[in-house]
Amino acid sequence: MLDTEIRDLARGRNFAALTVIPKSGHPMTHVMWVDADDDHVLINTELGRAKATAMDNDTRVTVTVIDAANPYHYAEVRGRVVSTTVGKQAAEHIDALSTKYTGSKYGFGPTDKRIIYRIEPLHQRTM
Questions:
Q1: CB-hemisphere CA count at 13 Å for 13?
Q2: What digits encode the pLDDT tens for the residues 34-45?
Q3: Strands 60-66 and 16-20, how do they pair?
Q4: What CATH number is attached to the domain comprising 27?
Q5: DSSP 25
Q6: Contact 46, 97 (CB under 8 A)
Q7: Is 102 a residue whose pLDDT tops 90?
Q8: Taking a C-beta distance cutoff of 8 angstroms, is the pair 42, 77 a contact?
Q9: pLDDT (0 to 100) of residue 42
């Protein structure tokens, strides 16, 4: 279960740093929009992107959500991808995320195919 303070940070208009492990073995970090349900951190990206390929190959990830109002307040979730969702639900989710962060829908390109990664927390903390 996701800690409620972490869930609230992820549901707010706060950015996250997603760290994944690609096949090279060298960790790779991306600044991301982030979301959460009651149990998981949610990451939405485009199929085929480097971060997506890395999470498909190695489900271990770390997500750090930084409080926009106070960058010294942040949450860290170390966990693993436990499920994915593609299709209409992922497209609707990126529109909701874009509205949260920018005030308007995402504006898909003609070949955009989205995927939501659900990350189960194995270790979580706030500072």
A1: 7
A2: 999 999 999 999
A3: antiparallel
A4: 2.30.110.10
A5: S
A6: no
A7: yes
A8: no
A9: 98
SS (H, E, C) 28-75: EEEEECCEECCCCEEEEEECCCHHHHHHHHCCEEEEEEECCCCCCCEE
| pLDDT for residue 110 is more than 70 | no
Length of the chain: 127
105, 95 contact by CB (below 8 A)? yes
pLDDT at 109 over 80: no
Q: What are the tokens at 34?
A: 């982030």
pTM: 0.95
SS3 of 120, please?
A: strand
- C-alpha of 68 from chain center: 16
Apex 17 CA angle, 53 and 116, nearest 5: 45
Distance, CA of 118 to CA of 100 (rounded, Å): 19
Count up the domains in the chain and report the number: 1
Give the domain range for residue 104: 4-126
